[in-house]
Structures are given as structure tokens and as C-alpha cells.
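Input record (one chain):
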Amino acid sequence: MVAQGDIDALHAGEERAMQAPGPSEDARAAAARGLVRGGRNGRSEEPLIPGRATTGYPLELRRKVLAAVDRGVPRKEIVRTFGIAMPTLERYVRLRKPTGEIGPPRPPGRRPSIATTDQHCALWRQLAENDGAGLKCHCELWEIEQGERISVPTMWRAVRRLGWKKKRGRWEPPAEIARRQAPDEKA
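The corresponding structure, as predicted from the sequence alone:
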């Protein structure tokens, strides 16, 4: 069954909600139109902005829900006790299976780039050792050596950031490019 501490915390929250003054007429109307997200389960009351992703339940609540699943509490009771939807509970259980831990999902957007100094040094060495390889080959080498898969455009941005250019079918570091363009001053 659900732990007594969880039930006590839930009842304490209900008592506070009963003592607190209710939302204003405007707030209720906005909530009815779906323009405000309620303050249930630790979520903040803030206006919903179209196109912006909402944040999930707090990590502590996710852990309590999964702990209840581990204790063998029926899922319907967990859903009622914690005030979450059944698909949310099923998603938490499914996401926990591969890693054993549940955390906030990775935000969408551009993948991590080659940003640290160590990564820049590793890419410099890779370009120097494989100066005839194409970008796709460098991406494959990066995945083998660094264990991180990156796309061809990401590799291109990183190579350009280092100042390397491909001339006559091979990669050249910035110093060689500058030497070739500058006249010899040995005379």
C-alpha cells in the first residue's frame, strides 16, 4: 500500500488548500480556457505560452511514484494518491527500465557540439592524422574514439571553428594556410 508519510503529506496539502482563499473569478476563467497551469503536485501557477513546452512533475514526486510501484501498490491507487494520469505512470515505469533511474527528459534542440578544450585537441589530432578523410569519415572516427555520435554539420562547424580548411583534397591547419598565402620573407 501507499506509505503513511505520503498519505499524510497529501492530506496536509489538501488541508492547506481548504484553508487558503480560493482563486479569483479571473483565475478560474483563465484556467477553464487552458491559459493557466494549476498548482497541483508542486507545479507552479504560471501562464501557458503557446509553442513552449511545459515542465513535467518534480523529480521528487517521480521518485515517490516509482517507489510506490516497487512496493507493489496497485497502479490505480498510485494514480489517485499522487494525482497523476495513468499514461504518466506507465511512461515513468517504461523510462526507468533501461537506466534504473528516472530524470527529466533531455530538452529538444541541437545536439551537444565539440566544445571542450580536450575535445578540440582530440579533433585537431584526428584531423592531422587523417588529413585526406572526408567529414563523414571523421564523424565515424569521432564516434569510435570518443564514443559520441555527431552529425556531419556538427563536425563541419567544429572543424571551421578550429580554422582548418580542406584544400586540394586534404585538411590543412590554419598555420599552413597562412604560410601558403603569405610571401616568403627569407631573403
